[in-house]
Amino acid sequence: MPMTDPTTTAPPILPGNYVRSLVWPDHVGTVVAVFENGDLSVDWHGHLANDQINPGDVTRLTEEEKTAYIAAWTPEAGS
Length: 79
Known about the structure:
SH3 type barrels, 5-stranded antiparallel β-sheet, alpha+beta, 1 helix, 13% helix
């Protein structure tokens, strides 16, 4: 019995998707690019500048998680 069923695989992570690091669970960022080798370039909000990371080290936020995250994390607005 296979461990993963190809018909239930998650959609690919694309630029603009919000992702959470599985290595640092408090890190959420926006995917800004996908490299030719499949790695992602992620802009980590409030932590690191753009970082190259393996897509296996992140999980894509659901729409509900993304909405809750955006409501909880709003960058300082300049006055």
